[in-house]
Amino acid sequence: MTFKFDMPDVIPVFPLPGALLLPRAKLPLHIFEPRFLSMIEDCMKTSSRLIGMVQPYQARDGETRLHSIGCAGRLNQFSETEDGRYMVTLSGMSRFRIKDEVEGFTPYRRCHVSWAGFERDLGKIERDENFDRASFMAALKRYFDDRQLSTDWDTMQEADDELLINSLSMLCPFEPEDKQALLEAPSLSTRRETLTTLLEFALRGGADEDFLQ
């Protein structure tokens, strides 16, 4: 996989609780806040068109902070509604580590980031060699039934390992901290193990989560 741009050292970041983006996955977003409308407009003018999705969290001092690891997506679909809102889609490129926040005059946040350690994200589709699909799908079916969720099971059965695991990680209604754990998983196998643990925890009576659209 090659690109016509270098991964930039500074990117705009979009702190959105519960919204998870993973490499080679797609995340649709509905943009309506003025500061983020400005972010999209500025992003469209850059060669990379990258936006970093980051989970915010409430620190003990009451301040809203950003987790150190996020995932950058390339803005590759864009449409504007009649009332000035944007419907966009980000294609996941690579995770990054925040070094520090940029002080400046933009209404949205920007960060100096490092891409080191996430070279695999820009490579080939990952495989999960130890994936017991039958056992995993059985647990997933119990979870969907318990949460009264519906899906196209035939499509799920046919999806490759990475598409299946990453799509479920993004779409299942887990808490933001759980989403962060899925993001930070160093490999597809460890992400699948984390996902399985979260499904089993929920089936054992874990706290009910709200689904974030």
Secondary-structure topology with pairs:
Layout: E1 10-15, E2 26-31, H1 34-43, E3 50-54, E4 56-58, E5 64-66, E6 69-80, E7 86-101, E8 109-114, H2 133-147, H3 153-158, H4 161-171, H5 176-184, H6 188-203
Parallel strand pairs: 1-3
Antiparallel strand pairs: 1-8, 2-7, 3-6, 4-5, 6-7, 7-8
Helix pairs in contact: 2-6, 4-6, 5-6
Summarize the structure in words.
- The protein has 213 residues and is an alpha+beta fold.
- It folds into two domains: 10-122, LON domain-like (Archaeosine Trna-guanine Transglycosylase, Chain: A, domain 4); 133-203.
- Helices cover 31% and strands 27% of the residues.
- It has six helices and eight strands, in the order ββαββββββααααα.
- The chain has helices spanning 34-43, 133-147, 153-158, 161-171, 176-184, 188-203; strands at residues 10-15, 26-31, 50-54, 56-58, 64-66, 69-80, 86-101, 109-114.
- The strands form two sheets. It has a five-stranded mixed β-barrel with strand order 1-3-6-7-8. The chain has a two-stranded antiparallel ribbon with strand order 4-5.
- Strand 4 (56-58) and strand 5 form a beta hairpin.
- Helix 2 (133-147) packs across helix 6 (188-203), helix 4 crosses helix 6 (188-203) and helix 5 runs antiparallel to helix 6.
- The radius of gyration is 18 Å and the shape is globular.
- The protein starts with 9 loop residues before the first strand and ends in a 10-residue tail after the last helix.
- Mean pLDDT is 90; it is low at 207-213.
- Keywords: Hydrolase, Protease.
- One of its GO terms (biological process) is proteolysis.
- InterPro entries: Lon_prtase_N, Lon_prtase_N_sf, PUA-like_sf.
- It comes from Planktomarina temperata RCA23.
- It holds the Pfam family LON_substr_bdg.
